DNA sequence: GCGACAG
DNA sequence: ATCTTGTCGC
């Protein structure tokens, strides 16, 4: 898969924030996906010591949610974990995994935020701009403020940072903690939320994320 | 100013 | 992210 703007790579925290400010203008907000045939989940697993990591991508049939492709690799990280600069920690390995994918998915689902980010350019936006593919951010915790949504699957409330509505707190199953959905690239928030619900028929997290998580953990072990 | 803070 | 006991439920 062909990727764009790979020359935009920082060495320091200041440079990293500058890259985000520069690339944020390339995010396309809005739109729908006519008929997604395949959906890819991206995730990275870490080993507490030695900075070893495994990146995994699982591509599922959007209709049956059966896996049709995968890409797994192990590596290491040098960029420290800094809230807001999360992308620069996971992106190098995710990029390699994307390039080794046999197929080009119709949609990407990232384990983290898109627009629900301090500079409105979270990992899901970054991956979306690099690939120019529609991309959704689905995170397990929030960086913004929200009121608890209703108790039923499908209930949601707006997620805000400052005055901006940057995403949704979405209940994907009855009586479970909500997930935090935001636009990454090339779709609108309503579509992102609808797709997230579709991809989460049984558990709190989307099947794409769960599959990728399993693959990444297995790769670290074996 | 202080605390909180995706994974 | 990862470390973990017991507990509840299919």
From TrEMBL:
- According to its UniProt record, which reaction does this protein catalyse? Endonucleolytic cleavage at apurinic or apyrimidinic sites to products with a 5'-phosphate
Q: Does the keyword Cell inner membrane apply?
A: no
Picking any one GO biological process from the record gives: DNA repair
CDD domains per the UniProt record, alphabetical: Endonuclease_V
Reported EC number(s) for this entry are 3.1.21.7
The residues that the entry says bind Mg(2+) are: 43, 111
Q: What class of enzyme is it?
A: hydrolase
Required cofactor names:
Mg(2+)
Per its UniProt record, what InterPro entries does this chain match? Endonuclease-V
| Pfam families xrefs | Endonuclease_5
Site note Interaction with target DNA, residues: 81
Family statement: Belongs to the endonuclease V family.
Instruction: Please give the name of this protein.
Output: Endonuclease V
Source organism (scientific name): Longimycelium tulufanense
Q: Which lineage?
A: Bacteria, Bacillati, Actinomycetota, Actinomycetes, Pseudonocardiales
Encoding gene per record: nfi
């Amino acid at each position: 898969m062909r990727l764009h703007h790979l020359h935009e790579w920082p060495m320091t925290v200041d440079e990293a924030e500058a890259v985000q400010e520069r690339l944020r203008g390339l995010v396309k907000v809005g739109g729908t996906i006519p008929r997604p045939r395949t959906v890819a989940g991206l995730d990275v697993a870490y080993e507490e010591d030695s900075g070893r990591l495994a990146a995994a991508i699982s591509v599922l049939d959007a209709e049956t949610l059966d896996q049709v492709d995968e890409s797994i690799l192990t590596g290491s990280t040098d960029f420290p974990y800094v809230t807001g600069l999360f992308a620069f920690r996971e992106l190098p390995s995710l990029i390699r995994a994307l390039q080794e994918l046999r197929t080009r998915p119709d949609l990407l689902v990232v384990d983290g935020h898109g627009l629900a980010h301090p500079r409105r350019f979270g990992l899901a936006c970054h991956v979306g701009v690099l690939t120019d593919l529609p991309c959704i951010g689905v995170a397990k915790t929030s960086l913004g403020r929200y009121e608890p949504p209703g108790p039923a699957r499908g209930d949601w409330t707006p997620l805000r940072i400052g005055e901006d509505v940057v995403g949704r707190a979405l209940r994907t199953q009855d009586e479970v903690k909500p997930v935090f959905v935001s636009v990454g690239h090339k779709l609108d928030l309503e579509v992102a939320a609808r797709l997230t619900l579709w991809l989460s028929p049984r558990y709190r997290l989307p099947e794409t994320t769960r599959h990728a998580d399993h693959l990444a953990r297995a790769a670290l072990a074996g």
